[in-house]
Design a protein that fits this description.
This protein is of the alpha/beta class. It contains 13 helices and ten strands. The chain is globular and about 55 Å long. Bound molecules: zinc ion (ZN).
């Protein structure tokens, strides 16, 4: 990243695109809401995203996607976008044109852009640095089919891109409310990829059991509903940080889904956005090559505020207690049709980035499960 230095120090790079602005999976889909465009607009309104730190994501070409995805599946998505629909045969074969994975106007270009950003991130991290790609994190995508709103699996592509730079040991940490079944599918037998996922128990896709250790490289922590910041602080200190530092990775990839935040409609976890930022900050000193991706996040205010705060955290920016008018205007401009919380958003969704902390007594189940996984770590390292 020699061309992106301020005062001769590499600065974090934000990979974004205008393709996400106005793109929707459809009027009733959870991904009808704006997300990445909000983060870009808020970050610019706060003066945190100068041009030197911004890269427009390239769109991955089919040949680049085919390092993990089936060429027939890639072609089917291109055809679906061109024709605005799919045949029954392709729908069944590739799980596209369904309620979860609909055909929409940018159904190939949008995921190919996120994938292109992930591949580029791996190339940029041939040199030490920090890359933020909030459009990434589509951790359910499978080689030959769409899964859980995900068409291509950009975390997998990012890890393969890092590998191409000669980086072998990759720590992948995933704090989305859902288990990263697609990333697990790719690397569960690869001892040079640490896979650590925290996710709500008894929730789709229902993979990621506590006992599932892969080749010894997989650490799954299913979480009870109501998980709060105190629980997450314990998980960070006793599991995530010791696992990653003990693994001695050449690079870290963090999937920072925002659907474990309390106001998200797709989980019953109760984190504040501070808990996500603690993980982002905690991992930073453990590597000189750090890629942070987005993921789930379906409340347009929660995801915009949380992910803008992630960017602030990566840059060491002070987050103001009350947002300046330009930033407040971005949040007041959001709408969330079809959700009751969209009708009467509380005022702090407009005027702040930082949530109030969500504390409580540590859940005994969380403590017991962390103890179990920590015991495995002591044997490994
Ligand atoms: Zn999720």
């Amino acid at each position: 990243m020699a061309d992106r230095r301020i005062a001769d120090r590499p600065v974090p790079v934000f990979i974004g695109s205008e393709i996400y602005r106005g793109s929707s999976y459809g009027a009733w889909h959870p991904l009808r809401v704006p997300r990445v465009s909000t983060v870009m607009d808020l970050s610019r309104a706060l003066g945190w995203l100068p041009p030197v730190q911004y890269i427009t994501s390239p769109r991955a070409k089919p040949a680049a996607l085919s390092i993990w995805h089936d060429p027939a599946y890639i072609a089917a998505l291109q055809q679906a976008e061109a024709e605005g629909g799919v045949s029954d045969d392709l729908r069944i074969r590739h799980n596209i044109g369904t309620h979860a994975n609909p055909i929409f106007a940018e159904v190939f270009r949008r995921p190919a852009t996120s994938a292109g950003g992930a591949l580029l991130a791996g190339e940029l991290l041939a040199r030490p640095g920090v890359v933020y790609a909030p459009a990434g994190g589509t951790h359910h995508g499978m080689p030959d089919h769409a899964n859980g709103f995900c068409y291509f699996n950009d975390p997998v592509l990012a890890i393969l891109s890092l590998r191409r730079q000669g980086l072998r040991r990759i720590a992948y940490v995933d704090i989305d409310a859902h288990h990263c079944d697609g990333v697990d599918h790719a690397f569960r037998n690869d001892p040079e990829v640490l896979l650590l996922s925290t996710h709500e128990e008894n929730r789709w896709p229902r993979t990621g059991a506590l006992e599932d250790a892969g080749a010894g490289n997989v650490f799954n922590l299913p979480l009870p509903k109501g998980l709060h910041d105190g629980d997450m602080a314990l998980i960070l200190d006793r599991l995530i940080l010791p696992a990653v530092s003990g693994f001695r990775p050449d690079a870290i990839v963090l999937q920072c889904g925002a659907d474990a935040v309390a106001e998200d409609p797709q989980s019953r976890l109760m984190l504040s956005n501070r808990a996500l930022w603690s993980v982002v900050a905690g991992l930073r000193p453990l590597t000189d090559r750090y890629l942070v991706l987005g993921g789930g996040g379906y409340n347009p205010w929660s995801v915009g505020r949380a992910w803008t705060g992630v960017w602030a955290t990566l840059n060491g920016q002070d987050i103001p207690e009350r947002l300046p008018p330009e930033a407040e205007a971005v949040l007041r401009g959001l709408v969330w049709h079809g959700n009751r919380r969209g009708r009467t958003p509380p005022d702090h969704w407009f005027t702040t980035l930082r949530d109030a902390p969500h504390h409580g007594p540590i859940d005994d189940r969380v403590r017991a499960r962390v103890d179990l996984l920590a015991a495995r770590l002591r044997v490994m390292f």
